[in-house]
Amino acid sequence: MVIKFGKRRWALPSPPIFINLFVTGIVLLPIYIKLMGVLGQILSVPTTVTTYLYYGVLWLLLLIGIWEIKNHIIYAVIMAILLAVALLMELFLFPENSAYILDGDAFSYAIFQPTALLQSTLFVFVGLAVTNFEHLGRLLHRAARIGVLGATLTYLLMLLFGVGIHYDDMSTAYGVSLIMCILVAFKENGDWKYIVMGSVCLILGGTRGPIICLLVAAIFRFIIFEDNIYTKARGIFLCIIGGLVVISGVGLKLLELLNDFFAMFGQTNLRILDYINEGVILNGSGRDDFAYVLLEAIKKHPFVGYGVGADRLILGGYYAHNLVLEVLVSFGVIVGGIFLVWIICLSLRMFTSQKLTARKLAIGLFCGIVVKLCLSSTFIESREFFLFLGLCIAAKGSCGLIEQTEKR
Question: Is 331 within a domain?
Fold first, then answer.
């Protein structure tokens, strides 16, 4: 589409570009919200207008780009039928769990913040609308760099202006972790500085899960799915060096120096350092107890399950913080097992794709989203999880069309 004004012409991006921009905007949303919140505190002015403007741009991109779903219409119809049947069955079998499936809060829909399963599952169709994976990969790689700079600026402002950094800044840490996983998956020359800055942000965030996600992404990228033998060798070498640094105690010394540096700005303790000093770095933070209770519950009703959100009901309001256990306790061993196998199959298909961009997307998004859900949070409220599933399905269709075209 071209806009004409006199002799001037402006070419507008095509719909595939718009949906890719929407996906990128969703990935960067947590970083943007955090930055605006900090600026609001420092300037003592409300920044909600800028945040609502961001949501408005996202809606514009979505409404224009979502029509690309027509290219995967068969997959979209099948998914719509399956989701409708699954949600209706859940409501029929477990009406007491309906609050975790349906939510009447229209505002959470408007700001893309799911509070129930229906809101989250809609992002499957966003993933299904993606057709240009090459462009999405390039866009997410650039956005990851911007996201790291945004997170670094956010924490820098907090340190310089005395804004207290939360001891366990989980939301920001996982937002940074996702863009860091993408950055590692698409790493090019010059990305090391972003990786270093992002790693410092993760340490300031104080949460172990995001760091584990990043480490898994590095292992996937450089050891398992790297084709170039020299790059693979460098990755293995760096992992060995990193392991030696940790074992030798050098890593702990660096953390202590970092802690002393941040203490000058009022940041008194790094949570990661406290975990190490207290000898609880490998402690499950109560998740082991959750797992035991949920496993016992699964044994009592292994086939049917307890319905969506059952982990909260069983644990008295707490999440399972484990995707596998949450799925099994919700849907039972048979249906839940099929769902988990389906996730694995979709992920493996992207991991083993002949298209390099698809493989890199799989690494970055799988480690930043699926691995995260195995460590923290809940799939019920994860828009990124269902977006990832939609992308995997769309990649299958897109790659098939590309391969047919190439053969002709």
Answer: yes
